[in-house]
UniProtKB/TrEMBL annotation:
It comes from Hydrogenophaga crocea. This is Nicotinate phosphoribosyltransferase. One of its GO terms (cellular component) is cytosol. One of its GO terms (molecular function) is nicotinate phosphoribosyltransferase activity. Catalyzes the synthesis of beta-nicotinate D-ribonucleotide from nicotinate and 5-phospho-D-ribose 1-phosphate at the expense of ATP.
């Protein structure tokens, strides 16, 4: 059977944008990432170990091709020295280890952050595809195509509804939890062909290149979390991360992630300077309506016209939820909706809720408090408590 990953572009754009920023500003950072499955699988993921190790062996043989690098270099925010780095980049097998402990699949990537941070999406895509290969593929694809037809019909109907000031637009964010790479391609190609007025791009860099779509993505939690360990005062880590991002991209990739410490703590740091420099904000935990109202109230206090800003929602969305949020905010701000599992793994099977998260950098713990119970992550209870105290966060959520 063919390998799951055959191109190093088959990952999210924000891996490249964070990668470039860290290479330029903190290239010596050491990091550790670990795999977590948040829900119960139909059979033990430990059964995938041998296949997973073969896939990781293969992943570590891949290199960026000249045509791929030429395309990447054509994105105006990708710097030539980063392309030169990618030209010689190859994953090192010694930096990643998969094993079974106490009956559970464990995966850990440890080493220089600029070498190990890119493992995440590939590992998650590999685990997903190996897992779902064990189910009835023909039945799953038949159900997936039926549901995809329903999605296309619903999206086509959006254009016939009374318009709001700002249009309804969705993006595919489904690499990490997809049923398979082939299925993601089919979904993205179908939506691009049949609902182009609504479907605006994909986070998958390979598919964006091959299908002529806009690649979408800016930053993830690991970027801001790393700054908890980089020698700045802990209270200032968000501001330091945002400042470095502004200096790196100078107006491009201007959507800031808000929930590493929670929305309230983020907005306390997101002053007039940052609010003017960033194009908008991304929601990834907590109630989306409450979050959006806080964002718009913050812009209003700063006397910034909310119609010039974009609110991006990306937390476990389906089309119905995205439309509900759009109806609430569509006359008040620009909006975007990144939909993942509901697009690329809606097959009538229970998806895996898997992540691979940064746990420490430079030998120090990092934490995400989040606005959703169950999404908080930290290996060190003492550090988590201290972080909550520093930012005045009462509920670890």
């Amino acid at each position: 059977m063919k390998p799951v990953i055959h191109s190093l572009l088959d990952t999210d754009l924000y891996k490249f944008s964070m990668w470039q920023a860290m290479l330029h500003r903190h290239p010596t950072t050491q990091a550790r990432y670990t795999f977590v499955c948040r829900n119960r699988s139909a059979y033990p993921l430990a059964a995938l170990l041998d296949e997973l190790n073969r896939e990781l062996d293969h992943l570590c043989t891949l290199r960026f091709r000249a045509d791929e690098l030429a395309w990447l270099g054509g994105l105006r925010y990708i710097k030539s020295d980063f392309v030169d780095f990618l030209r010689i980049f190859q994953f090192q097998r010694e930096f990643i280890r998969a094993s079974v402990a106490h009956g559970q699949l464990t995966i850990e990537a440890r080493g220089p952050q600029v070498h190990v941070m890119a493992f995440e999406i590939f590992v998650l895509a590999i685990v997903n595809e190996l897992y779902f290969r064990r189910f009835d593929t023909a039945a799953a694809l038949a159900e997936g195509r039926r549901r995809l037809r329903d999605k296309v019909a619903r999206l086509q109907a959006v254009g016939r509804e009374p318009p709001l000031r700002h249009p309804f637009e969705i993006t595919d964010f489904g690499v990490r939890r997809r049923f398979s790479g082939d299925w993601q391609r089919e979904v993205v190609a179908t939506l691009a062909a049949e609902a182009p007025q609504v479907f605006k791009g994909t986070s998958n860099v390979m598919l964006a290149r091959e299908l002529g779509l806009v690649p979408i993505g800016t930053m993830a939690h690991e970027y801001l979390q790393t700054y908890q360990t980089l020698g700045v005062r802990l209270r200032d880590f968000q501001k330091a991360a945002l400042e470095d991002w502004v200096q790196e991209y100078r107006g491009d990739l201007g959507i800031a992630l808000t929930d590493v410490i929670g929305m309230d703590a983020f907005l306390a740091d997101f002053d007039l300077y940052f609010a003017k420099l960033f194009d908008g904000l991304r929601h990834d935990s907590g109630d989306p309506i409450a979050w959006g109202e806080k964002a718009l109230a913050h812009y209003a206090r700063l006397r910034i016209d909310s119609h010039t800003k974009r609110l991006v929602f990306s937390d476990g969305l389906d089309i119905a939820t995205a439309l509900r949020i759009h109806r609430h905010f569509g006359d008040r701000a620009q909006l975007g909706f990144g939909i993942g599992t509901h697009l690329t793994n809606d097959m009538g099977l229970q998806p895996l809720n898997i992540v691979m998260k940064l746990r420490e950098a430079n030998g120090q713990p990092v934490a995400k408090i989040s606005d959703t119970p169950g999404k908080a992550l930290c290996d060190d209870a003492t550090f988590l408590a201290y972080l909550r105290q520093v930012f005045g966060v009462r509920d670890a959520g």
